[in-house]
Batch of 2 targets.
Target 1
Amino acid sequence: MNKIMSLQEMVALVPDGASLALGGSFLHRGPFAFVRELIRQGKRDLEIVKQSPGYDIDILCRAGCVKKARAGIVAMEGNFGLAPWYRRAVEKKQIVLEEHACATLTAGLRAAAFGVPFQPVGGVHGSDLPALNKWASITDPYGSGKDVWVIPAIQPDIAVIHVNEVNELGDARIYGTFNWDRIMTRAAKKVFVVAEKMETVESFRERPELTLIPSFMVQAAAIVPNGAWPGSCWPLYEVDYPEVESYMDTEGSLEAHMARAPEAKEASHA
Amino acid sequence: MPEQWSGFSFIVTNLARFIRPDEVTFSGVNSTPPMLACLLAKRAYDFDFVYINVAGGVQPTPSKIPLSSSDPVLSEGSTAIFANEDFYDLCTRGGMDLCFLGAAQVDGLGRTNVSAIGDWHNPKVRLPGGGGGAVMLPTARRAVTWRTEHSKRTMVEKLDFITAAGGMHGVVTPIAVFVKRDGRLALQSWHPESSLDEVRSRTGFAFDTDGATPTPLPTRREVEALRTLDPEGQFERDAKVALR
């Protein structure tokens, strides 16, 4: 079955209120073209699940698309510091934040991936996070006497992953680190893939060990070259720092930034 | 003429001095000074250590030094990709010898707040969040943090929120190096252009000063390594570290 569709068609499949796990980390290999299309289509009340979001959660907060964030660390990174629109949205209580450590969010995703209601996680002792989130701790039932924090399952509706290459069936591979993307795809009910490039099924057959996401788990795929802009996609392109700086200008226009996006230029040429 | 410290070189170099031979040492997201410290140690010290980072790098040899400490260029030259789940699991099972973690506030026990200034539910400032902290600080064999501002706002008696406990092994600021002793942060050394009194007056918590001395000046090799990493001084300018 051919899974390839346009970015617009893919985003149209996302209902308001959906819980989305977004791949990548900070300014690197995030599904940013997908995120901008969510804004263009006016999606609302989204839940964003990501250990280290930045530009993606910030621009979605800026456009008023977010209801809840479940995250470990949120920043623009480099010299840019805090994510300004996200920060304001939390401070003004426009969104609900479920603050995690990156590994507690991962534990929740692991619980969903493993098909169990909760998952132990190392560490966390002495932190205020468990009280905040009403996490439970259990004593080792096998008698070591150790207490372990357990995190309830986190099952996103859709994991959205930006990858280097996909084939028509939906098999997908990433070059360089895959960050948290593997566990996101195993935890979510559905997987959407945005790829830089289409490759042949034959090339995947030659090197199946390079495939991070097998096609049967993927419901939809779109080809969007430079789709991680203004972030990086290793080894194809680096962060577009002048554009991130322009995005961060609070006097600047969101529409102007969105119009400079590769997928917007592509559409206007079509 | 002996080499001098700048606030920036003081932080990066003293972070590097926590790195020990043959140990597994990790630098993460939002962590430019530790990234530079790991790369400096590879150039300035004769011993080897296992440098791993949040970009999946294992003993990488990056062709350039990125602005973002999670940039995938930091896995260039690596012989493996050790992705996020892997380095967290390594840490929680006791295999991370030294881990660099960020902090907005640090208390005398070496606990950190990276969550909010003010009440968590009604924050004056919503901070980034602790990332790895709550899991890595109590499970890494040693964790070290840094602050580019040394004041009673950052080095506090009481944290607004405890993001991560377990206690830092070391803390580096523009004027001081603290190390954990008997469960509390103790002063190890102070910037030679500062003083014990200044460190005391700018720190919100009480600390032991037994054996503390002015920080030894950077060696020629430390200075040269940092210059190689930041030839144009861009990282130094961007970091905006002031002694006072």
Target 2
Amino acid sequence: MNLSRTEVETELTSLSPADYRRIKIKAHTYSRGLTYLSPEDLIQETYIKLLGGERVFPIGVRPVTVVINAMHSEASNCRERERSGAIDHLVDVSTMSQPIDDDEGSSVVIPKIEVTPERILVARREFSAIETLVADDADLKDLVAAWSLELRGKEASDYLGWEINRYEAARKRLLRRLETKKEECK
Amino acid sequence: MSDTGKSDDLAMFLQTQLEELLEMTDKDILEGTNPKDLTSENLAMITAAKAEAGRRRMFAAKAGMVVGKAFAISTMPQVSVAEARAFIESAMNDNHYTLAARTLGEMSDVDILRVYHQLHQLKSKSESPDNDKQ
């Protein structure tokens, strides 16, 4: 059973500030691999689909979880469209590109992928982007590695050999870091 | 590391991050933020999303009407003006239909085709099996 549009609006309006922040943090994480969708765009698009009935809002599931799952799916769809589209948004135009001497003012465009493939490869890997984001903080790098092994909470702090306080401080720092805007990371 | 390995890492990272986020206390989550700002931002997001969802529904409804019209026109038989005129002439002698008292010669080609299609639709409806049941 799913909620009606009115009920969906009520649930979204009733989200606590903490749940909305959880949504924001996830939106920042999911949109990291996208070219055209900002975290705000991703939340907006997800709300539009939920309020418009294009995405179902099941009864009995914690609303923040419903929104985050819908956002994940929306980001995946967008990522797929970006990859399968005619334009590769991740390819920068190289300075080696040259105008052609013809009537239409055309140019030979050489994508940078031909010049520095490593740079493009890294840009294509969302996980690499996260690793890069925490590269300057040894604890955060370790925490990302632990989470990518599905270790969390006490299990992760034991694995890392940390006191729980250190783990919790690093966790808060990591979540704040994940909210860093993509353009601020360059 | 292979692309597949990275992809698995990402999936597990995202899942663990979600579990941590859901388990963390609201106090920890809200640290360094203003809850009122977050509430206002959420409400603004909902208002804008509702408006956009409404616009999209309206657009979809209009697009549906255009498609419906195009389908109706495309399903009509294509005839010449002469054929349409002949059809109307024969219909004028059929007591099933009543045509306005005006001569065919006074009607423009467009009018001829419009009346032809109206008559054709009426004829189709009167011959449909559904109509027989009534």
